[in-house]
Each structure stands twice: as structure tokens, then as C-alpha cells.
Design brief:
Blueprint lengths: L3 E6 L2 E7 L5 E2 L9 E6 L3 E4 L5 E3 L2 E6 L8 E3 L3 H8 L2
Antiparallel strand pairs: 1-2, 2-3, 4-7, 5-6, 5-8
Length: 87
């Protein structure tokens, strides 16, 4: 899977592995991390685990308990994807 470099935050390169055009995935790579920052490209996005809608073109932070990988969906694709992520 290709890795997309999406920006630099405080000297750290932010990378995401896109699953198509609508689903950037930003794996947590630091052991013990409690929160994780992800740059979302321009547009409207939805956190697939919480359903919260977010503005793109900015860095967002979310809690990352064990078992949660930050995944975001373009808001326009969310209605078709929502059931996939329903728990």
C-alpha cells in the first residue's frame, strides 16, 4: 500500500496510508500513545469511529485506545461507508 506524506507537524513527517480516495488511515506508531494527530486534506471528513464531522486542511487529534486506528472518511462518501464501520 502506498504511503502518502500529508504534511509536517513540529518536525515530524505525517503519513497516511490511503484506502482509496475517501479513506486515509493514520496508524499509531508510538507505543503507549494516548492521542494521535492526523493532517486531513481540504474538505469535510468524518471520524469513522465517532461519527464526528471535521474540517480538512488542518491537523486533528483523537484519543487512540488500544484497538482504535485513526480512520477518516470524506463526508460525501460517509453515507455509503457508515455501515462498514458500525460497531
Amino acid at each position: 500500500m502506498p504511503v502518502l506524506v500529508v504534511g509536517v507537524l513540529r518536525g515530524h513527517v505525517l503519513q497516511a496510508a490511503p484506502l482509496g480516495d475517501a479513506l486515509p488511515v493514520h496508524p499509531v506508531t508510538e507505543p503507549g500513545a494516548a492521542t494521535w494527530e492526523t493532517y486531513l486534506p481540504e474538505g469535510r471528513w468524518v471520524d469513522v469511529w465517532s461519527g464526528d464531522e471535521l474540517a480538512g486542511g488542518a491537523v486533528t487529534s483523537r484519543d487512540v485506545p488500544i484497538g482504535i486506528i485513526p480512520v477518516y472518511c470524506r463526508a460525501g462518501s460517509w453515507p455509503a461507508m457508515r455501515e462498514i464501520f458500525a460497531t
